[in-house]
């Protein structure tokens, strides 16, 4: 299995060199892959796993990607790394996109730990007025915002101001991931739009019909 992992590492270094120099270190009983010093993937028992964060984890799950399971003190622990199956591995364009998402997410987490913002309004996209609204919704810190996630925060804000539109959801997602909302990765934006159209748009239509009746 060691030779299988080393072969996968060599292939991954070639496939992901567009991210920068790919280095390797021991991690989780396997091998961590780092681009520019940032770990974005793991190779374990010949399989490649991509790192997820709050914004892209559901996207990985919805695609059916399985978690890396790490035995810690004899107990299985699900890690936020998701397996690249044979179909994704053979789709070079999709794999490059997924790897980019994993790398960008890992990079934003590293930067946020080095320079943690003092207030919500210090995050991308969040104005002082939106910060005040978040406070009213019980979300008073950057840590609380990240713990809740963009969708749950948005739902709480909607209970206070039902007129908040899709751009506010994008703003929250961008604040968590470290992106300006206008340049969120397409996959993330599409997933948020799908969620919005399924859970929010129908309620807006009902409210509009009620108000005009």
UniProtKB/TrEMBL annotation:
TM segment ranges: 164-188
An example of a Pfam family matching this protein is TfoX_C
Superkingdom field: Bacteria
* Domain named TfoX C-terminal: residues: 118-195
User: By its UniProt entry, which InterPro entries does this protein fall under?
Assistant: TfoX-like, TfoX-like_gammaprotbact, TfoX_C, TfoX_N
Keywords for this protein: Membrane, Transmembrane, Transmembrane helix
The UniProt entry, under Gene3D superfamilies, shows:
5' to 3' exonuclease, C-terminal subdomain, YgaC/TfoX-N like chaperone
Annotated TfoX N-terminal domain ranges read: 16-105
Q: Does the keyword Transmembrane helix apply?
A: yes
Q: Please tell me whether the keyword Membrane is annotated for this protein.
A: yes
PANTHER family associated with the record: PROTEIN SXY
User: Protein name, please?
Assistant: TfoX/Sxy family DNA transformation protein
């Amino acid at each position: 299995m060691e030779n299988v992992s080393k072969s996968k590492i060599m292939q991954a270094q070639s496939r992901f060199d567009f991210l920068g120099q790919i280095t390797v270190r021991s991690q989780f009983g396997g091998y961590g892959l780092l681009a520019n010093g940032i770990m974005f993937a793991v190779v374990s028992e010949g399989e490649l796993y991509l790192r997820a964060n709050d914004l892209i984890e559901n996207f990985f799950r919805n695609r059916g990607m399985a978690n890396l399971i790490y035995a810690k003190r004899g107990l299985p622990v699900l890690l936020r790394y998701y397996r690249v199956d044979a179909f994704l591995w053979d789709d070079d364009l999709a794999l490059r996109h997924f790897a980019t998402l994993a790398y960008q997410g890992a990079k934003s987490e590293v930067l946020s730990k080095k320079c943690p913002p003092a207030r919500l309004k210090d995050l991308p996209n969040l104005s002082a007025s939106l910060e005040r609204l978040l406070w009213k919704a019980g979300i008073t810190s950057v840590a609380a915002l990240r713990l809740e996630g963009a969708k749950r925060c948005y739902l709480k804000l909607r209970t206070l101001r039902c007129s908040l539109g899709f751009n506010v959801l994008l703003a929250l997602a961008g604040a968590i991931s470290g992106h300006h909302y206008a340049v969120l990765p397409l996959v993330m934006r599409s997933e948020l739009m799908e969620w919005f159209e399924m859970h929010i748009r129908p309620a807006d239509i009902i409210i509009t019909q009620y108000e005009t009746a």
